[in-house]
Amino acid sequence: MEATAPLAARYYTEPSWYERDKENIFYRTWQCVCHVSEVAQSGAYATLRIADENVFVICGNDGVLRAFYNVCRHRGHPLVEGFGRVGRRLVCPYHAWGYDKSGTLRNVPGSGEADRLSCDRISLRPLRVEIFCGFVFVNLDEGATALKDQIGDLEPLFRTYHPDPEKLVFVCETSIDHQCNWKLSVENYNECYHCPTVHAKSLTRGVLAMEGYTTVPHGRMIWHEGKAQTTNEKQYDYDVTKSPRAGDYGAYWLWPNVSFCFYPGGYFTIRQWLPVAWRKTIYRYRWFSDGSIPEEDVRALMEKHKETTGAEDEAVVSRIQTGMESRCFEPGPYILGDGKGAMSEVGLRHFHSLYRQASEQGNGGV
Predict the structure, then answer these.
(1) Superfamily of structural domain 30-139
(2) 221 — alpha (psi -120 to 50), left (phi > 0) or beta?
(3) Residues 205, 233: contact at Cβ < 8 Å?
(4) In this structure, what DSSP letter does residue 309 have?
(5) Is the CB of residue 210 less than 8 Å from the CB of residue 192?
(6) Over the range 218-254, which residues count as b (16 or more CB within 10 Å of their CB) and which as e?
(7) Cβ–Cβ < 8 Å for 178, 280
(8) What is the distance of C-alpha 170 from the center of its chain?
(9) Concatenated DSSP letters for 52-81?
């Protein structure tokens, strides 16, 4: 059932609600760590912060991807940082406890018979791992519904843009700090009601056409689709004829905080809203290439987006957060319009419905 009214201000302005969000949502949902190409070699790893929890994915000697909490079993020091590759073992930087790539403890410096320490009975805490269209997801909840069961019908659509997403290669990334609750950043993304005003000189002039643009709730997703804007000067160099979908725009948001975004010309980015605190969110863009676009062009678009649309969104969400903290604020009604077009807040309403479901059930919204 869709929400009948927008969320009240307290959901964004009271730190206690952020604490609930961590437990009820972020620790119970699928979170994207990286692309398979980034962890394809034995010992290659990638880390991710999920609210207050640090995790990592690593490729084993057998080529299998495994995920663990990034916490040593001795004194809790993180084992790895960022992206990289280890040799024979994962070695804790604090006391040099060593683990093999399957997470089992193999070496404890200085231990003796009096310690009665059985290494093979100590392992890193594992997490569930799934791969979707070449992207590696983890979930802290052992009982969560499989990712494929939640978004499997997106895969054939994804492959209309990139037939072999497993062969995508990471090019670059950028992050923008949003001084707001994570929900405000996600909501801003899932409606284009603000586009003609906030992005009048960036997104709607030379990137995305408003006519024919749609926002459609789809299970635990929201699908945004449209066409390239070709009537004004282009904001970046794209060719709408280079591939069957080069003239299309598609952004497919997955509950609760990730989106696959396909730009005109064949450019692709995955977006994530990473909560840091009740009033701070990192909006991360990771850009990939299928080899058909020069990497310098991908980097140029990344910088262009950060300086224009990215900067514009950064400004408005922080101002909305401040406004919601006013003692006078009460949310206005949804503007639904035709129920799917660019000027409709149907995506916002759907997000609120998913959020209420997750908050009430305490299971990530499954």
Answers:
(1) Rieske [2Fe-2S] iron-sulphur domain (2.102.10.10)
(2) beta
(3) yes
(4) I
(5) yes
(6) eebbbbbbbbbbeeeebbbebebeebeebbbbbbbbb
(7) yes
(8) 15
(9) TEEEEEEE-TTS-EEEEES--TTT---S--
Structure-block tokens of residue 205: 């002039």
User: Partners of 268 in the beta sheet?
Assistant: 262, 288
Contact of 362 with 24, CB cutoff 8 Å? yes
Residue 51 Ramachandran class (φ > 0 left, ψ -120 to 50 alpha, else beta): left
Q: Length of the chain in residues, anyone?
A: 366
8 A C-beta contact, residue 195 and residue 210: yes
What crossing angle do the helices spanning 311-324 and 182-189 adopt, rounded to 10°? 130
Give 231's pLDDT tier (boundaries 50, 70, 90).
confident
How far is Cα 248 from Cα 44, in angstroms, rounded to an integer? Answer: 35
- Where do you find CATH 2.102.10.10 in the chain? 30-139
φ and ψ at 340, to 5 degrees? -160, -15
Fill in the amino acid letter for 236.
Answer: Y
Alpha carbons 223 and 353: distance in angstroms, whole number:
16
Distance CA 132, CA 129 (A): 10
The tokens for 337 are: 């319009």
- CATH superfamily, domain 151-361, is Naphthalene 1,2-dioxygenase Alpha Subunit; Chain A, domain 1 (3.90.380.10)
Q: How far apart are CA 332 and CA 334, in angstroms?
A: 7
pLDDT tens-place string over residues 116-134: 777 778 999 999 999 999 9
Task: Report the C-alpha gap between 181 and 321 in whole angstroms.
Answer: 7
Torsion sign (Cα): 69, 74, 76, 78: negative
C-beta of residue 286 within 8 angstroms of C-beta of residue 269: yes
Q: For 279-303, how does the pLDDT look when each residue is reduced to its tens digit (9 = 90+)?
A: 999 999 999 999 999 999 999 999 9
